[in-house]
Design brief:
Layout: E1 29-34, E2 37-42, E3 55-59, E4 61-63, E5 67-72, E6 77-87, E7 90-97, E8 106-109, E9 113-121, E10 127-132, H1 138-145, H2 162-165, E11 173-176, H3 188-196, E12 200-206, E13 229-233, H4 235-247, E14 251-254, H5 256-264, E15 275-279, E16 294-298, H6 305-314, H7 316-328, E17 339-343
Helix pairs in contact: 6-7
């Protein structure tokens, strides 16, 4: 069928958009979606829904302080959101200003350092390429002068608690400008409980870009092109997946970012390729999953590519029913909201 963006719309009362995290990481609710069956649980119940020999795959990316405020050389105010630090002196970003800066112009950020805009970037030219106009290192400048980039639907500026709660407890590799939010529900005690039950864990890295929040600008989803993101699958994770498969265990992606990386590196036999790569995979209904058996994820925005992904994984009608149930039962939505455990349903054809 030819799906449109409107096929993935749903009514969401604004008060259900979580503005702050639950008091405890594991304190969120968990909706278990198994085909037509919907079961309301607590996230703390998750270990009881897994079995020894299962493998949880986490994204260990770390959110950098990617938001800057400053002035253009013309005097106008500007807001910069880093999309990616390319190297110590080059970055790709989004720009918010009354007029877009021209190539060759400079901007003074945080009243601390100057950058030059060298041109457009990205497949559609939606981003800007920056380079430092003076000695420095984007990684160090980000940590020292940047602000934590909370999602646009969170209405308060980053506070002290956000510095810890908008990071996973296992975040290690800096580079993301948005958190892999399904992982925010895990605390150290839960990870220890899972290990004690014989439930295995593995890690990969996918640096989430700010492009994850950009709205789709097409009507037919087949016309959409995803932004590219970096990921890396270490040998230990590939080995763990192979071992899990051989023993009859289930591969469970913690978050859509982990799933996208695994499916991008996946082979037809359910194993994955080792190494670093870029992915612009766009998973929609009709995609045939190769690696992931179950998915832990938060609730996603209407008309979003992530809502399309979970519809492909758990079934379009099942997800529509699950979201209607979640709204009726007053679940909390988006990054600081509640979670779902999705069982994979039928497979067919190819991805868009």
């Amino acid at each position: 069928m030819s799906l449109t963006v409107d096929d993935f719309d749903f009514p969401l009362p604004p008060e259900l958009i979580a503005q702050h995290p639950a008091a405890e990481r594991r304190g969120s609710r968990l909706l278990h979606v198994c085909g037509e069956q919907l079961v309301d649980r607590r996230f703390a119940d998750l270990p009881t829904l897994l079995k020894a020999g299962d493998l949880l795959v986490f994204n260990d990316t770390r959110v950098i302080k990617a938001r800057f405020f400053g002035q253009k050389d013309t005097g106008g105010q500007v807001e910069i959101m880093l999309e990616r630090i390319v190297d110590a002196t080059h970055a790709i970003c989004q720009v918010r200003a009354s007029k877009a800066p021209k190539a060759g112009s400079t901007m003074r950020l945080a009243d601390a350092f100057t950058v030059k805009m060298t041109g457009r970037a990205g497949a559609d030219g939606d981003f800007f390429a920056l380079e430092l106009a003076e000695p420095g290192d984007f990684w160090e400048l980000s940590e020292r002068y940047g602000k934590l980039p909370l999602p646009p639907y969170i209405e308060h500026p980053a506070e002290g608690t956000d510095e810890t709660r908008y990071q996973t407890v296992y975040a290690r590799e800096p580079g993301a400008v948005a958190a892999p939010t399904a992982g925010l529900h895990f605390d150290e005690d839960m990870l220890a409980t899972l290990q004690a039950q014989g439930i295995n864990t593995a890690f990969l890295t996918l640096h989430v870009g700010a492009g994850t929040y950009r709205p789709m600008r097409v009507e037919k989803i087949a016309d959409h092109r995803m932004h590219s993101e970096r990921f890396e699958i270490p040998p230990a994770t590939a080995d763990a997946i192979t071992t899990t498969r051989a023993a009859g265990g289930r591969v469970i992606a913690v978050g859509t970012t982990s799933l996208r990386a695994l499916e991008s590196a996946g082979n037809d036999d359910g194993t994955v390729r080792v190494g670093a790569a870029e992915t612009s995979i766009f998973i929609t209904p009709g995609y045939r999953f190769k690696v992931v058996d179950r998915l832990i994820t938060n609730f996603h925005l209407p008309k979003s590519t992530l809502l399309m992904l979970v519809s492909a994984f758990a079934g379009y009608d099942h997800i529509r029913a699950a979201y209607a149930h979640a709204v009726a039962e007053r679940y909390r939505f988006f990054s600081y909201g509640d979670a779902m455990l999705l069982e994979r349903t039928g497979q067919s054809s190819d991805a868009i």
